[in-house]
Description:
- The complex is a heterodimer of chains A (about 850) and B (about 150).
- Chain A has about 850 residues and is of the alpha/beta class.
- Chain A has a domain at about 35-80 and about 85-140.
- Helices cover about 50% and strands about 10% of the residues of chain A.
- Chain A has 31 helices and 16 strands.
- In chain A, strands 3, 9, 10, 11 and 12 form a 5-stranded mixed beta sheet that branches.
- In chain A, strand 5 (about 395-400), helix 16 (about 405-420) and strand 6 form a beta-alpha-beta unit.
- In chain A, helix 8 (about 210-245) runs antiparallel to helix 9 (about 250-265) and helix 16 (about 405-420) crosses helix 29.
- With about 150 residues, chain B is α+β, with helices and mostly antiparallel strands.
- Chain B has helices spanning about 1-10, 10-30, 35-50, 50-55, 105-110, 115-125, 130-150; strands spanning about 60-70, 75-80, 85, 95-100, 125-130.
- In chain B, strand 2 (about 75-80) and strand 3 (about 85) form a beta hairpin.
- The longest helix of chain B has 18 residues, at about 130-150.
- The two termini of chain B are about 25 Å apart.
- Chains A and B meet through helix 5 and helix 14 of A and helix 6, strand 5 and helix 7 of B.
Amino acid sequence: xxxxxxxxxxxxxxxxxxxxxxxxxxxxxxxxxxxxxxxxxxxxxxxxxxxxxxxxxxxxxxxxxxxxxxxxxxxxxxxxxxxxxxxxxxxxxxxxxxxxxxxxxxxxxxxxxxxxxxxxxxxxxxxxxxxxxxxxxxxxxxxxxxxxxxxxxxxxxxxxxxxxxxxxxxxxxxxxxxxxxxxxxxxxxxxxxxxxxxxxxxxxxxxxxxxxxxxxxxxxxxxxxxxxxxxxxxxxxxxxxxxxxxxxxxxxxxxxxxxxxxxxxxxxxxxxxxxxxxxxxxxxxxxxxxxxxxxxxxxxxxxxxxxxxxxxxxxxxxxxxxxxxxxxxxxxxxxxxxxxxxxxxxxxxxxxxxxxxxxxxxxxxxxxxxxxxxxxxxxxxxxxxxxxxxxxxxxxxxxxxxxxxxxxxxxxxxxxxxxxxxxxxxxxxxxxxxxxxxxxxxxxxxxxxxxxxxxxxxxxxxxxxxxxxxxxxxxxxxxxxxxxxxxxxxxxxxxxxxxxxxxxxxxxxxxxxxxxxxxxxxxxxxxxxxxxxxxxxxxxxxxxxxxxxxxxxxxxxxxxxxxxxxxxxxxxxxxxxxxxxxxxxxxxxxxxxxxxxxxxxxxxxxxxxxxxxxxxxxxxxxxxxxxxxxxxxxxxxxxxxxxxxxxxxxxxxxxxxxxxxxxxxxxxxxxxxxxxxxxxxxxxxxxxxxxxxxxxxxxxxxxxxxxxxxxxxxxxxxxxxxxxxxxxxxxxxxxxxxxxxxxxxxxxxxxxxxxxxxxxxxxxxxxxxxxxxxxxxxxxxxxxxxxxxxxxxxxxxxxxxxxxxxxxxxxxxxxxxxxxxxxxxx
Amino acid sequence: xxxxxxxxxxxxxxxxxxxxxxxxxxxxxxxxxxxxxxxxxxxxxxxxxxxxxxxxxxxxxxxxxxxxxxxxxxxxxxxxxxxxxxxxxxxxxxxxxxxxxxxxxxxxxxxxxxxxxxxxxxxxxxxxxxxxxxxxxxxxxxxxxxxxxxxxx
Lengths: 826, 153
């Protein structure tokens, strides 16, 4: 039976003109400048330093620190949003996670408010508190330095700190996951506390005293402690809202405050009864998760499914209207934008512009395998279309055998109208990919997107999907230069795999490349394991664990493998440039014998100056990934398969497999800027192609491009892929249909994901030149959305130069002649 | 009172004024060869004369080694008992060792209002071995000193 009762799935009668609250809240958000918020750093430091003992088990001690912060956290109501709770003490705040990477802003405490790129306001008093009171306590205690000391400054850590080989996100985060908020909505925090208490009693009754039993006891106690902190925060919100209501003269504001007071007195302590209670309960839990874990890609999951029963119930009982549901979802979308990352200027320069990427997933099939699209799916799509916000990162699942064409076309229409969101995910393939990883069919069908594009069985799988961000080009260069890289000079970094000038076949080079890959990935995995074990030791996560299926059953924290499913994700930068370079070497050196390997390396060292003929040959005559050239197809498939086999052969500290993926956030721009010229003709310090997308301007035919990317073995990409496509325009209904059909074709070829920017080269070039004309221009980067003006220059260039396809002809639109110098091979 | 008498006897404020001038001149110079020397001298004196600035090293123990890549400069800086000591020698058991290409590179890393991060990384202008939080703290103090010298704080 259809779950669609809306007369118009487009909900076109609801606009920002007649949704005044959402319009006002959005306008406020857009003009609010971000501020550094030290509230969390202050309270957690005070608790750990002054009010607790080093001798206490870290699981309970850390739970108490987070609970202490939540109980002290100021209940604030900055605007007329219908939902109570704020991530930080600022209207738009960047929290300091001093135990992770927060201390990297220490040198900037006096200048962060005025820095050129993405400044964050920091008051003199707060800067002094960080400098004199908070940061000194953490000098030896943050994850990075604790790990360095414990493992004696290992080589893998020093490689990581060179930046140009791989990044290890665990230094800065337990993140990139999808909690199970359904559990809180159905049972309430009190239900979770009760379960933890019962489990604690059961362990005690066993009468055994193994290390595992002791950990279980500590874990169950920690869950109860930290959950009480969440209750304190909700109670404070309720009390404060009532106080404010008493003083409020505006009747509608007063009514809203009273309602929030009533809602927070009920949830998240108890099960939600209404749609509004469910939405607010979920939001308070999201705030609470960030009290413990960094604000990076903690993704609320399948909200159209999680919230549907409350919506349906209220609608059926006449307690809710579509307008009210739109307003509540709109308020949630705006709340998800109330915080941003705290990033030092170096990171802004190289990798800047990212939001906090809480991903919301809609549509697709349910656990029963049938169409799960419902009224809320369309409400969420409409809210996304109206608000055009950076966050949440909205992802639409599409099952071409189960979902309707109307749904598919509606998602396409929202993309066209926002010019960027949501991203499209292929249910048919995504589910198979997860099943292949050992996820049960029902659980695989209930997947949600983490952060950018990664897949997780929602609330059951802890995937830490950005554990490793690996630069494939670094391994390629190590193979080309016998274990050295131009970026790190004459230092012998990798194993000596031989001077390729002496290689007589491409296979010899391929073996050298694989040797460098396995060595370097091995180092990245080693470091991730070190970080993981240190997290287990000093930074447990009982709060997040309570919002998962598994930890309470197993009596084990999420970071110790408590979730039902476990994995670590490794994503790869420079896929297309690496594949094209391999193909160029094969063709130029070993098939056409157009140059020797030594001549090729000389040309690369000279950045092709004086080698123009060879450069033109490499750019225009060698096989390119994204076309049907058999060499390109072979090399892309071989690389995908090799990486999959290698990663899957490694088990992480939580007992899960490593999963490779291909999405790059802004790292492909930053890493490109740090890399030398490549055999595919890309010049030194130019950006790499994003995600799994073919190199800019390399794949001239859309259909061949979709076939090539879709043809990659999808089960070998379990941590997701980001295919970025660009259309200059999609004008009318017929075009939208064509657009949606192209997506479906790609999915039938086997592609996992695709996202779009609907904008021309000219618009983007103008937006770079005149940012003031485009303050809210939303773009898809490589798995998430950003405001174009916030991106660094390299990232802007990468988005500008991405191949744009004419939807009618399927051919690449010529890049404007006068701006060709922006292209990677120019 | 004792501090004031000592200041007067040792002409510290006058020395501070002179050092400030030389420090600012060094920041503006193209080569900035003397940067580390100027910075450490100015920092040392600022700790003696400026109570607020001195708070940065109260209760702070840190051992730094600054080395130029060509080994022409080796300076150890020790913060201990609320004092800063500078020695031209190699130091064992450092919290962090900072290796820099030249004075200008180190200045660029610590003070530039808009650091050339890309260039700095590519040239490996400044590298570290040890606890980075000690680098961050030192960089904060150096930046604060620059802002004090230019009158911005």
